[in-house]
Write a structure and sequence with these properties.
By secondary structure, the chain is of the alpha+beta class. It has 3 domains: 85 residues; 66 residues, no CATH class; 144 residues, no CATH class. Helix content is 64%, strand content 8%. It has a 4-stranded antiparallel sheet. α1 runs antiparallel to α13, α8 crosses α12 and α9 packs antiparallel against α12. The chain is globular.
């Protein structure tokens, strides 16, 4: 009896130990990561930054091979020439296309990412340039625009799509307003309500500051902007849920009118819409990074509980 008990316990211990060993191994090892980033000429921080752009982190990958396959193929003159042939582009045409978005080939490390960018820019060239001009007008630079897009691509795509449809409906009456009039208090209230919803839906936290002609700065809430006359410059800083800086914008008093209000709503909706499409493109090229860990977890506990059940059953029958 004692011998059977010891054997059963030993088997359960080995099963449990093996199960937890599987958990411990379900991530790339530190020396493997060091070897990978060294091969790329990166640092570990570079790798983490790159993965975060796609809404991922090192811990999302079971093995270093899966992680490396996610990164893609480093750009070489040979595969770049091959890509240009496939896309029917000359190198000069590619340089002109990327320059329109303040980029060049050296901004990309992997050929797969460059291909996604080329196809995206070709399909959205006019809209992206128009959007870029608007963002520059309100003080959002290229780096901040990229942070903004990166943040939006990490959001739930289905939920964002629903919000975009709602916002596009809300744009219709705004476009019909008399463009020569100033905003009424009701129109301002509706506009503020839109921005409150927009920031909440996109997980952005605005920090709003008014700046008068003497440079005095006062922090304001969104609600305060409804009732107070907008005669001062408004500075808006945007942060994500982790308090990380995304972008800041400057709105002068003369911008707070119906044409600009309609344009700003439209551009922010377009930005969200573009990010949704970009997110879909990147998702299409990603391998399945889902870990098998939950499956092992379930199997492990089932086996452990099964073993305990058999042991208890044996003890029960032997006592009888």
């Amino acid at each position: 009896m004692l011998k059977k008990y010891k054997i059963t316990c030993s088997l359960l211990f080995l099963l449990f130990f093996g199960f937890h060993s599987t958990i411990a191994e379900a991530a790339p090892k530190e020396h493997e990561i060091d070897s990978l980033v060294s091969k790329l000429g990166w640092t570990k921080e570079d790798l983490q930054t790159y993965l975060s752009y796609k809404g991922l982190q090192i811990e999302d990958f079971d093995t270093i091979d899966i992680l490396e396959s996610q990164l893609g193929t480093p750009i070489t003159p040979t595969n770049l020439d091959s890509l240009l042939v496939d896309l029917d582009l000359s190198r000069e045409e590619l340089d002109i296309l990327l320059a329109g978005f303040h980029e060049d080939v050296t901004d990309y490390w992997f050929i797969e990412d460059l291909e996604v960018a080329i196809e995206f820019y070709q399909n959205h060239e006019e809209k992206m340039i128009d959007l870029d001009n608007f963002l520059q007008k309100i003080g959002i630079n290229d780096q901040e625009k990229q942070l903004f897009l990166t943040h939006l691509t990490k959001l739930d795509s289905a939920a964002l799509s629903q919000h975009i449809q709602t916002w596009e409906q809300e744009l219709i009456p705004l476009r019909k307003l008399d463009q020569n009039e100033t905003l009424t208090s009701t129109q301002r209230e509706n506009l503020i309500e839109f921005w409150v919803n927009y920031f909440k839906s996109t997980s952005l936290k605005p920090v709003i500051t008014t700046i008068d002609d003497n440079g005095n700065r006062i922090k304001r809430s969104m609600a305060e902007l409804v009732n107070e006359p907008l005669t001062d410059t408004i500075a808006i800083e945007l942060y994500d849920d982790n308090e990380l800086f995304i972008a800041d914008a400057i709105l002068t008093a003369d911008m707070i009118n119906i044409p600009f209000s309609a344009e700003s709503v439209q551009k922010m909706v377009e930005l969200a819409s573009i990010s949704e499409e970009l997110s879909t493109l990147y998702a299409a090229q990603m391998p399945d990074t889902a870990s098998s860990l939950p499956l092992f977890l379930c199997m492990g506990y089932i086996l452990i509980l099964g073993g305990l059940f058999i042991l208890l059953q044996k003890n029960y029958h032997e006592k009888k």
